[in-house]
Amino acid sequence: MTFPVVGMVGGGQLARMTHEAGIPLGIRFKLLSDTPQDSAAQVVSEVVVGDYRDLDTLRDFARGCDVITFDHEHVPTEHLRALEADGIVVRPGPDALVHAHDKGVMRARLSAIGAPCPRHRIVADPADVSRFAAEGDGYPVILKTVVGGYDGKGVWFVRSEADAADAFKAGVDVLAEEKVDFVRELAANVVRSPHGQAVAYPVVESIQVDGVCDTVIAPAPDLDDELAGEAQQLALRIASELGVVGHLAVELFETRDGRILVNELAMRPHNSGHWTQDGAITSQFANHVRAVLDLPLGDPRPRSKWTVMCNVLGGDYPDMYYAYLHCMARDPQLKIHMYGKDVKPGRKVGHVNTYGDDLAEVRERARHAADYLRGTITE
Predict the structure, then answer these.
(1) CB–CB of 136/108 below 8 Å?
(2) pLDDT given for residue 1 in this prediction
(3) Is residue 249 classed exposed, middle or buried when 0-12, 13-18 and 19+ CB atoms within 10 A define those classes?
(4) Which candidate among 136, 279, 315, 366 keeps its CA 20 to 30 Å from the CA of 331?
(5) Residue 379: how many other CB atoms lie within 10 Å
(6) What is the sign of the dihedral through the CA atoms of 174, 177, 182 and 186?
(7) pTM above 0.90, yes or no
(8) Interaxial angle between packed helices 77-85 and 55-62, expressed in degrees from 0 to 180 and rounded to the nearest 10
């Protein structure tokens, strides 16, 4: 066999869907998973169960892989540097990935390259949070742990010094950011290869509910063409300046005064790009595989005028397979993507994609399917 082996660290749904994108190309995958029941571990043939935080485990896993990539940002940066010192190809490399792993490093680097960001700094304790607030417009303030946060975890909306106490209990550095007066959240998704080729997907609107992505609309409705181009160029510049290889999601705020500010970075396939599975000529997952293998990148253009992705969250109705009968009969064009996860309240267990020419209709179809699968509606 001359086809390469891609080693994927992390066994979640992103790894599952990246593996799926590599199948038509004959790409072989090897997975480092926390448990045999993880989403990707159910479908990848070669699975190593182990702790990604253990360097010896990482080294053993990397043997026989042509390249290592990730479905999360939590691998310690010093471990990735050790793998590179061993001659192992890591994409994105530690010098890039540290900016997604550590929000303090990310903010410092983005500020250094002139990327627009909210006012921010590392704070030492609740009293320091009050000083940060006083330096700007006062409370409320957003607090984030610099490492380990995701899907609203490790993030606090604080209105007073007393509110800030919980953020310091984890024993890790805390980043304070001004509360941005924004009208909506956007995401600019790009992919960059080692030889410098890069592609940009349409800028999307990302709608959050309780700190978790609920709906993504591609492209973002009523977004000024100039601002959309600015967002794409910003994402491409960040990918180049940071040396990203693979998929980069740049989460953005669109402010009330017509600007964009960088909220977060993710150097892997991202929830805001799931619409590309059915709505783009080349999905984010397929282009991530191409990029880490330094293959020519695929066309990122949309297939339809509108594509809407809705996440399917777990609720009190565990029999989602039975719900397929209604959803598929009602909408033969509906695309359902399930992750093989046990249904738990609030847990992301899948997503649906719809597409077409009428945005209101496309949104209704996606919303109905996601709610019916969850059991929120029953007719």
Answers:
(1) no
(2) 61
(3) buried
(4) 315
(5) 4
(6) negative
(7) yes
(8) 40
